[in-house]
Amino acid sequence: MPLAAATKLGPYEVVAPLGAGGMGEVYRARDPRLGRDVAIKILPESFAADPDRLRRFEQEARAVGALNHPNILSVHDIGAHGGIHYMVTELLEGETLREKLGGGALSYKRAVEYGVQITHGLSAAHEKGIVHRDLKPENLFITKDARVKILDFGLAKQATIPVSDDAVTLGSTANTSEGIVLGTVGYMAPEQVRGEGVDPRTDIFAFGVVLYEMLSGQRPFRRSSSVETMAAILREEPPEITDAGDRHIPPGLERIVRRCLEKSPGQRFQSAKDLSFALENLGVGTSQQQAVQTISAHNRWRLVGLITAAGAIAVLAVIGVRRFPGHAQQPKYQQVTSRQGFISGARFAPDGQNVVFAAAWDHPLFKLYNSRLDGTDSRSIDLPPSHLFAVSRSGELATAVGSKAWTGVKGGRLARAPLAGGAPRELLENVGAADWSPDGTQLAVARFENGKCKLEYPIGKVLYETLGYLSSLRFSPQADSLAFMDHPLIGDDRGTVVLVDLKGNNRTLTPEWSGEEGLAWSPDGKEVWFTATNSEDDGTLYAVSRLGKQRVILRVPGSLVLYDVATDGRVLLTRQEKRYEVAVAQIGGGTRPLSWLTTMVAFSISRDGKFAVIGDEGSSAEYDTYLANLDGSPAVLLGKGEGFGISPDNKWVTSILPTDLTKVLLLPTGVGETKIITAPNLRYSRAFWSRDGRALVVTASESGHPARNWMQSLEGSVLRAITPEGIDGILVTVNQVDYISVHDVESGRHLLYPINGGTPKAIDGLNNSDEIVGGAPESEVVYVSPDVAAVPLQISKVNIKTGLRQSFVNVTPADPAGVVTIINPIFTIDEKRYVYTQIRVLSVLYVASGLK
């Protein structure tokens, strides 16, 4: 009997029916404890009446609930109330794949895009020993942001064969009858039809049927009855996938489908991971929304040990020999720089015989240099400290004036200046990337405005925008398109390569990489060349065509960054080594390292000053969160995600998975299970604890909106915005009151927004160049740096009531070689110790010839 609105199931309140099928009824419900809507599936009476089936279901549901994968429907809870057994899951908005296929076959690009996501979800389940057994379009849901969710894990083992080959969709009125416990006829593997044992390769066969159907609009083995369909699965080969109109199915894609549909499990792909790899390497591209789960590692920087310039040349030479064996022409490498420091940008000059680059050698101040490739001249360009964006065909520079520890994610002041030097002409604020049009008359820019990064060409006309940031903006030689890298999160260099034409039509050319930096067009404009990293490759130069076909140009150990490609094919790139290093220091005393890996960042210190939350963003696909004791004893690995804050009682640490920004994990520091905090339509980027430990203070964005700060209760349904949309800051505690500290650069004001509501407070005595880096919980003081790019980093105390400023401490690296910036200085409440993170970068610039 259908449930009426307002019916209570445990803590959940039914809102409205969503649909019904052979495996139960589904309702929209409200969870008042967290103030979120959920979906509740009511299990059929026949299912719930069988103790063995119910026990197996509960075991499977718990296992799936522990998967926590962005391509698998999240299971929040299971329970029973008044004889009704139910399962609580996340509430999805969108449509099933069956509904989407009602409009006919999909484009092969979209089919592959969905296929990659499905295989990632299957791979996660298979690694935990879970086989779906009933994969079909009805059990695949496409959300409004184009993410695929696999449904009904936990029910699949007990799924039944319908009399008809037609699958039953939630909300459908089609009836099913129960039969042999195997699956849905049209999607069963031969071993299922024969009643034999199944394993992950059974799901791979079903995936092949689904992929075939997405590409052709037809099921490969569908016949007029279930018996005939099963006979076709056992004995017949699927028809050729028919092209429709101008839809061309690549031969490589059809081969993948046929290998999935092999009769013998031993002839199929042996794992979903292998299958996803094959699909990704077709090079047909994926969507921006799918990005976060495509590559198996999502760290900011892929790092290896520091290596000398001579060693780098030797490695490049060896790689060249391996890549071009025998009589083939080997690439040649010409070293351009030899000083130690960070090179942030480089371009060939119009004559092709000079190289212009920006570097910070023994300090974090970037200067522009011009070097002849024959070695006869190398000089500093007479310009203020600047970062290099581009060089026009007439020799005019586009720069970011005043850049110091340049990252490009916050933007600088765009200026144009002659290559020979002189006073720059400043044009525009908050520009993170820029390039000259091929004729050298106009600039395309990526600039930050109202919480978004917007690509404009000409300036003022928006062609593309993102809530993250854009980098490596480059015009095609034909002047018809712009290529760039889209990074979904500020401060994180993972992202995708995107192409946009001058009408604003865009295409994502690549899957998401764990780290990408550096992009340029091939001389003929047919490919975009770029450097990126993933879990298997530290440094790789790739090429991708305008249609998304991808290939490897050069693979080396370590990190490569591409800066330019000359018209004759010469490549300008750096061999670059980056390290994120955490240290703990005594005020007025010594400093010692607190990190043991190469991508570690400190985020917070416990209230008692004993522990630091440290994230490792290089060793795991989903990052790792550690709790480190400041006394130097071994750190404890708490779990996955990027760790942020530790609760006042030291029992919980907040963490966010880079592959799933829809939830905050509460990782126990002792015995206990991970908890999940979420809210409808929110994507989280940071999460800390309020001083009283009753709420989280998060930075998050609603779907399609810029980020802001929120207070999210742990005990009820309270979710309240702290800052206006598009404004987000850092959590500081001053004199036992929690605030969000915001710096309005345009007005020069520093504001403190109370997290519990009220009028923001302006702080007197601060300059526009000042940045608040923390607060003193026991006094009316904020910690301020007058120059967050300086090394050493000078920290002062400023009284928020009087504006009185006094010097506090200089954060100084024990070994300053290559340290370009210091981030996240965090002080204990007693102000006796502090933890900080330093970024160390060493670059060597090369010109490579013979790469193709």
Key structural traits:
852 residues, mainly beta, Transferase(Phosphotransferase), domain 1, Neuraminidase, Methylamine Dehydrogenase, Chain H, 7-stranded antiparallel β-sheet, 6-stranded antiparallel β-sheet, globular
Task: Give an overview in words.
There is one protein chain. The chain is mainly beta and 852 residues long. The protein has three domains: 8-282, Transferase(Phosphotransferase), domain 1; 309-488 and 497-502 and 554-577, TolB, C-terminal domain (Neuraminidase), CATH 2.120.10; 579-842, Methylamine Dehydrogenase, Chain H.
Q: Can you describe this structure in just a few lines?
A:
Helix content is 13%, strand content 41%. It has ten helices and 54 strands. The longest helix is centred in the first third of the chain and has 20 residues, at 108-127.
